[in-house]
């Protein structure tokens, strides 16, 4: 069965890039949503194996979203990749390191994103 990735980002270009990064991979399916509220609403039905999330989003930002994820039993331990235009500063800030397994800077290299995602998904087995 294909592994499920939930991708949350308010930027349609980044949504397209992430979708394209995995589109030829039969082992992965990507569900993309434009905000944290839609993502939270989809958790029960989707049961993602990995979550990729932007930090700077309107209404509910990525960090608040991650805190909400950790309260839900289905996603309490789900690996998370944070995408951010400020990844270098985030990586040095300890609470962010505890929230996510990987922090990548935008614009991210698709090969690096694919590698990090596949590595995390292999651990979910």
TrEMBL record:
Pfam families: Response_reg. Residues 4-121 form the Response regulatory domain. The modification 4-aspartylphosphate is found at residue 54. InterPro entries: Bact_response_regulator, CheY-like_superfamily, Sig_transdc_resp-reg_receiver. It comes from the Bacteria. GO terms for molecular function: DNA binding. PANTHER family: RESPONSE REGULATORY DOMAIN-CONTAINING PROTEIN, STRESS RESPONSE REGULATOR PROTEIN 1. This is DNA-binding response regulator, LuxR family protein. It comes from Sulfitobacter indolifex HEL-45.
